Amino acid sequence: MGRYFLFCACLVAAWSTESYASPGSQANEITDALYDLLQSQGGSTGGGDNGGGEAASFSAFKADISTPVIQTECVICHISGGVAGNSDLLYKQQDEAGYEQHNYDVLKAFITKKAGNGDVLLANTRGELGHEGGNLFSPPDAEYSDLENFVNLVESGK
Ligand code: HEC
């Protein structure tokens, strides 16, 4: 939690410096540059190397999230044409080519899109924020800890 707040504080600091110093489109450029910087520190395949040349978050996704969480509990609604077809979380089913990479990219993009989105994901999973899918996992479920761990890896660019 401490690290998360630090991350937010850093973003807020960056944001206020930016809006103070540069109005208009320049501000967007700085936001983009900041985003690129964050990405370059833990890109989807490059950074966060865990020794095998693969991001630690992608390894964790394949080991603990893809099947027990996404395929078992989320994909039934979070799919094109599904109940959650209008959400930002649209997954591929496991019989589709490249489903792991696609689903990892979708989830990672959601988490990194906005500060606090990692918590939004976890809260929806607990059935909060009016999640129409209800409560899928809560502490102390192993799947919940695995998802929390995954969010932490993504948020720290690993
Ligand atoms: C029974 C159907 C159903 C299931 C199962 C389900 N969801 Fe959802 N979820 C929804 C609907 C419907 C929405 C709202 C979609 C919209 O924005 O129109 C939603 C929204 C969300 C959002 C907010 C998305 C956004 O764009 O802000 C998150 C995060 C989320 N779900 C996570 C999950 C996770 C993680 C799982 C699996 C562990 C899951 N959901 C399983 C139906 C479901």
- Class by alpha and beta content: mainly alpha
Q: What's the alpha carbon Rg, rounded to whole Å?
A: 17 Å
Q: What's the N-to-C terminus distance?
A: 17 Å
* Bound chemical compounds: heme C
State the helix count. 6
State which percent range the strand residues make up.
under 5%
Record field, number of beta strands: 0
pLDDT averaged over residues: 81
The proportion of residues forming helix, as a percent range, comes to 55-70%
Largest sheet: none
The helix/strand order is HHHHHH
Task: Describe the protein's architecture and organization.
This protein is an all-alpha fold and 158 residues long. The protein is 59% helix and 0% strand. Helix 1 runs antiparallel to helix 2. The longest helix has 20 residues, at 2-21. 20% of the residues are buried. Residues 5-24 and 37-48 have low confidence and may be disordered. The structure holds heme C.
Write the layout of secondary structure elements.
Blueprint: H1 2-21, H2 25-40, H3 56-74, H4 99-113, H5 117-125, H6 142-155
Helix pairs in contact: 1-2, 3-4, 3-6, 4-5, 5-6
Bound molecules: heme C.
Heme C is lined by residues 69, 73-74, 76-78, 83-84, 86-89, 120-121, 124-125, 131-133, 136.
